[in-house]
Amino acid sequence: MTLDTLENLLVERDGAIATLTINRPKVLNALNTQTIDELGRALLAIKNDDGVRAVIVTGAGEKSFVAGADINELAAQTPIGGRELARRGQRVFDLIEHLGKPVIAAINGYALGGGCELALACTVRIAVDTARLGQPEINLGIMPGYGGSQRLSRLIGRGAALELLLTGDQISAADAYRLGLVNRVVTAANLMGEARKLALMLASKAPIAVRYILDAVNRGLEMPLPEALDFEATLFGLVAATDDMREGTKAFLEKRKAEFRGK
Ligand code: CAA
User: Lower CB density within 10 Å: C or N end of the chain?
Assistant: First the structure.
């Protein structure tokens, strides 16, 4: 990856795992335009790199994952600029959802507004027990623009989503877990270890099957059920063409661990 010039994003590579750390701790990792663009560049490089099989996204420092879009930029927003800003962020978060590899949000503190939306675009969310999550845009007289009104309601249901979106309340990690907004809650000391363990486990799976499962769920949910089932059947057929399918079934029958190669 040639990402040496990034200022607000740390990109680390450890074998098949890439870790992206939003790095503006002085403003609780608020997402300004530059940070969104850097995230987009890093994600594109990761998407095109077959060696990366799972990604972790987290925030620098101990206090915050991401405390939202940068309110300094929002305060000066024009109508046309606001729409563009939202579309730009949405495109980058769409890239996360359609990366073709699992992305784990390691939520190390505040995940508010755009921060909650970033976590929502990820495949799995693991939060520290002290994390606070929410969509406080309403308290600024605005609304979510990075997919929050759509992904939150799809993930936790219309009623719970509308309550969070309209009250702007911050909720605890435990409440987020109860709502299905986060998958797991861990202590701060265990956060990155748990995220890495899960990333390694997911990276060991057959990459083409992983990609198709992500596609079947993420794209399938946007289709009427009959089309989605047809889509699933097509992907099921396609995966039968892979070496990994032969290796997986053969390894089971030979009572050994499968070695998947992504072919
Ligand atoms: N944008 C810009 N700066 C931010 C920020 C944000 N979203 N969140 C925090 N900061 C800055 C603060 O202004 C402060 O800067 P200074 O030190 O220069 O004063 C610094 O980060 C530390 O923040 P606080 O002093 O406020 O820390 P705290 O511990 O008292 O409070 C907090 C923490 C509850 C997260 C509070 O900072 C907060 O409410 N932040 C804003 C959260 C928010 O409203 N997010 C939604 C943004 S809108 C959005 O995201 C729209 C969208 O969907 C696209």
Answer: C
The dihedral sign for the CA sequence 231, 247, 98, 156: positive
User: Locate tokens 């399938």: which residue?
Assistant: 220
Give the closest residue (by CA) to ligand 1 atom 27.
28
Average pLDDT of span 35-46: 97
- How far apart CA 57 and CA 53 sit, in angstroms, is 14
Contact 184, 127 (CB under 8 A): yes
Kindly provide the residue ranges of all beta strands, DSSP E only, lying in the chain, ordered along the sequence: 9-14, 17-22, 54-59, 64-66, 103-107, 110-112, 124-128, 132-134, 171-172, 184-186
Distance 90 CA to ligand 1 centre (A): 20
Which residue, among 17, 88, 19, has the nearest Cα to 60 in the 3D structure? 19
137 is catalytic: yes
The type of residue at 78 is T
Global model pTM greater than 0.85: yes
Question: For the segment 59-85, what is each residue's pLDDT rounded down to a tens digit?
Answer: 999 999 999 999 999 999 899 999 999
Ligand 1, residues 24, 27, 90, 108: which to mutate, most atoms within 8 A of Cβ?
27
- Look at the block and give the residue holding tokens 């024009």: 78
